[in-house]
Amino acid sequence: MQKKTKTPFSREVLTQFLQVSPFHLWLDLQFGEITDEGLEIIMPWRPEIVSIPEPRQVVHGGILASLIDLAGLYAVMSQGGQPSGTAYVHVDYHRQATSGPFVAVSKVLKIGNTLSTAETSILGPDNTLLASGRGGYPRATDKFY
Amino acid sequence: MQKKTKTPFSREVLTQFLQVSPFHLWLDLQFGEITDEGLEIIMPWRPEIVSIPEPRQVVHGGILASLIDLAGLYAVMSQGGQPSGTAYVHVDYHRQATSGPFVAVSKVLKIGNTLSTAETSILGPDNTLLASGRGGYPRATDKFY
Amino acid sequence: MQKKTKTPFSREVLTQFLQVSPFHLWLDLQFGEITDEGLEIIMPWRPEIVSIPEPRQVVHGGILASLIDLAGLYAVMSQGGQPSGTAYVHVDYHRQATSGPFVAVSKVLKIGNTLSTAETSILGPDNTLLASGRGGYPRATDKFY
Amino acid sequence: MQKKTKTPFSREVLTQFLQVSPFHLWLDLQFGEITDEGLEIIMPWRPEIVSIPEPRQVVHGGILASLIDLAGLYAVMSQGGQPSGTAYVHVDYHRQATSGPFVAVSKVLKIGNTLSTAETSILGPDNTLLASGRGGYPRATDKFY
User: Fold this and answer.
1) Which of chain D's residues have a Cβ under 8 Å away from the Cβ of A114?
2) What is the mean pLDDT of chain B?
3) Residue B92: which of B52, B64, B53 has the closest Cα?
4) Does residue D6 have a pLDDT over 70?
5) pLDDT class for A9, splitting at 50, 70, 90?
6) Most exposed: A31, A54, B68, B77, by fewest CB within 10 Å?
7) How many angstroms away from the CA of D35 is the closest CA of chain C?
8) Do A129 and C1 touch (CB under 8 A)?
9) Which of D84, D75, D81, D86 is nearest to D119 (CA)?
10) Is B4 within the bounds of a domain?
11) Which CATH number do you get for residue A36?
12) C4 within some domain
């Protein structure tokens, strides 16, 4: 479906990259399934991610946006893309996220020469669609900024 | 420019709302200027918000997306809107964010009956535009979900 | 998956709605498959939709954005939503669209009380993904503006 | 504010580019003011752009999305960017567009090495904000697709 620009990164290498980021470590992320279309990232609950504390705790939209952003980037890396970062992200919020863990399911739309794109869904414990969105990731060999 | 749906919230009330959220407290946010178009929110650096640690530390895009999301929501509240949360957010990343503090400057585009919109720019210490974007905020009196 | 808010519109009723719009008639749209998740809309080539005429004709991105916008709206209608119009649309362009017909495949993400969302892919004659995106559609019973 | 990558195109050259596109000719576009931040594009009413014909005629969102897409691209060209096309566009619809002419006011956010961005507002005859949005435009020297 999409053009592979180089050998995709392995789970081990992806995990090393993921754990280089202090924010990713703080979010306590780990990979779920990695397929030939994309991958899953699992995030547990933690008290600091709450936006609205009452009447029931709801996760902040920015945390879900972070997951959609980063899951798309790793999905691109898992399919042979070499992203240097994120150019843009769009997120739709569908339902309040009131309990974890959360699974980000990300699928590559296109591995491009300049920009790769991926779409990501955030599912709650019962597979409910909580949020979904997409991001664009410029190629690392380009001088993006 | 935009229709006011009720008396806008004061700085004191906005600050109370802002500090209800554990994620906002973790981000250590505070309001800057509040005008008749929107407002500013200031966020300091903290080590856990880093995405790329080397060769120089870069803030994670999800943190900037969080700021754009929440600054727009408070901008809507400051102009008489009554948002129940965020329906969607779009973020463009312009430059790497390598030092703080960060100022989110948010301006209301429209206070609507169903949905209000605001656009937000994230500026670095030297007023460089780091990221910008926009969000849509459904009215609290609606049953959004 | 999504909550049905009322009996979905039939193909006949959807077709009547589609053909009320002068712009839709100009685009010469017709429905393809209608499923329990969404629907397809087919658009032929016409000379006025060209953006770049040489070295080979490429369809204007605004035409593909129009298709993504309207296909999502009709997908929402096909699943029991009652959209009053479009609140927002996001479009990613993946490949140049150089020959038709084009098929917009649209799937509802959520039928909501305030806002429904749908995602749409535009496929070329050989099923190549040309563009994709998503839109949000406020409920008709709300006074959106 | 933004880095100039080469001498910006003049109004004459921009007009030549604009009129190469059959879709732009169909929309009957012309430039308004061109400043050192961006430019304006003016579009008249025409019957085929209508989405909803009754009780009063409303312009199709796809037409406004087209304007936001193309005005941003020409704004980038007017500031020294060399876009090859559009990578993505995001549009918010604020009010129904019921009479023309329409003015798209577009301002460059960033001229980038890989991607340039611009934001655009669509104003009605009385300067009412009808829609607004932003687009990302890859550099022509890159092989985008």
Assistant:
1) 87, 114-115, 138-139, 142-144
2) 93
3) B64
4) no
5) confident
6) A54
7) 24
8) yes
9) D75
10) no
11) 3.10.129.10
12) no
| D69 backbone dihedrals φ, ψ, rounded to 5° | -60, -55
Q: What is the ipTM of this complex?
A: 0.93
Least Cα distance to B143 among C13, A56, C113, C74 occurs for C113
* D101 interfaces chain A, CB cutoff of 8 Å: no
Q: Which of D49, D61, D88 lies closest to C86 in CB terms?
A: D61
SS3 at position D111: coil
Domain count, chain C: 1
* pTM for this prediction: 0.94
Does the distance separating the beta carbons of B66 and A95 come in below 8 Å?
no
Average predicted confidence (pLDDT) for chain C: 93
- For the cut 70, the answer to whether the pLDDT of residue C120 exceeds it is yes
Which chain D residue lies closest to A112 (C-alpha atoms)? D145
Q: pLDDT exceeding 90 applies to what percent of chain D?
A: 87
Is A2 within a domain? no
Q: Is B100 exposed, middle or buried (CB count within 10 Å of its CB: 0-12, 13-18, 19+)?
A: middle
Backbone angles phi, psi at B91, to 5 degrees: -130, 130
Residues of C in contact with D77 (CB under 8 A): none
The shortest C-alpha distance from B65 to chain D (Å) reads 15
Q: Is C67 on the interface with D (CB under 8 A)?
A: yes
d(CA C132, CA C103): 11
Report CB contact under 8 Å: C52, D21: yes
Enumerate the residues of chain A whose CB falls inside 8 A of the CB of residue C86: none
Which residues span the domain enclosing C126? 11-138
The verdict on B120 touching D (C-beta cutoff 8 Å) is no
Chain B residues near residue D94 by CB distance under 8 angstroms: 109-110, 112, 117
pLDDT at A145: 54
What pLDDT sits at residue D1?
Answer: 43
pLDDT for residue D2 is more than 50? no
Q: Which chains touch B (3 or more CB pairs under 8 A)?
A: A, C, D
For A49, the token pair is 């991610």
- Asked whether the predicted pLDDT for residue C3 surpasses 70, the reply is no
